[in-house]
Amino acid sequence: MKFGGTSVANFEAITRAVFIVGGRLNQKPVVVVSALSKVTDLLYRMSDAAASQNREEASKLMDELRNRHVNLASELLEQSPALKDEAVAEINRICDKLESLVNAVCAVGELSDRNKAIIISNGELLSSTVICHTMNAKGIRTNFIDARQMMVTSNSYLKGEPVESEILKRVPEVISKAYEGMDAVITQGFIGSNLAGEQTVLGRGGSDYSASLIGMAIDAEKIEIWTDVDGVRSADPRKVENTKYLEKISFEEAAEMAHFGAKVLHPLTIEPAVKKNIPIYVLNSTNPSGKGTAILRSELIEDGVKSVSFKENIKVINIFSMKMINTSGFLRRVFEIFSENRVSVDLISTSEANISVTVDSSEKIDKTVAELSEFAEVLVDDDKSQVSVIGKNIVKLNGMLKRTFAPLKKCNVYMISQGASFVNISFVVDREELTEVVKDLHHHLFEQPEEMETF
Question: Is the confidence at residue 419, as pLDDT, over 70?
Fold first, then answer.
């Protein structure tokens, strides 16, 4: 059971989360929690303040962090004085240790990736401390597990790659031991350690990934992702009205949705569950009785369009060279440069003398472009958006391409990519056109359905 930041944001949210866990004790829950809502952002700001030697700002943020957790623990544990004192003492111990590190960074004005990982990981340590004591106060005998004991990653401090062999070995043993005499156990998402025992994190949104890895390691019956929405919908309701609730989708569809912009799941969440065929349920902690969305193996899912997803801010990199024509090894050279510079590519389109790729706007591409420019003409288009129509076997549906592009007559389409997996059709438009394109496309596909037959 993984609870996201909005599901553990305050007194009311944590009280609901504890109630939800209490209703599943017969299933021996392993509870994975994120930091309280907005706390990770605060910790990123604190690390930036420390790096720039802004002691006043760092101190202000430190006080805000400490006071929020102390006050929350005091409120939740008001009827359990002994547990309240214990929780507050642990919160202060974590904050004192963090403050010492932040002061040290301020003193030298230099922030290493290792120290940044330590700073931003404290949100999960604090939230799990508060929630563990609250569960015990509510009569749920709960043991606290430090995720760094079992979530082993590579040496990349800020984007650790899970070492699955170590995770599969450690997680069952740690959880089994922690469960002795207990009703539940609680641990942290997002954080881990490398083989040397140094602190790492999985990257933003990595708590979903943590939960899925733990579920895989213990052969869980199911993985529940508790958030603040009623499952997965056919589009982002912040952009589109009349979105449709999806009762069930396939692992492949969910992975494509997450990768191509849907915010409900971390993109890497699906892979560990697929390996053990463990169903994932996306549920709403403010509506515990709701069905949510079940993510299941493909043969249990009907063909058809499920979602219109998007990435709002991307770059298109166009690479042109006559050397491509009838030349082996050119593509390999291009993508080796992307790999060596750790730039992640989403869509790819090629013609006889041109390669076009899309990357997230946050990617640092200056070095990549410089290296590509040594043997090709490179043009970078900014302020673009990527739109993806996702569903099982959609490229086999008669008339699907016509229906996808019918609403796009008034805007420029810069690139089209049809997934080999038969799960998505993606294209690139100007960023300023995105909202209208997504609305029109969703209306055309979901509110004015036409009959589409499978070839």
Answer: no
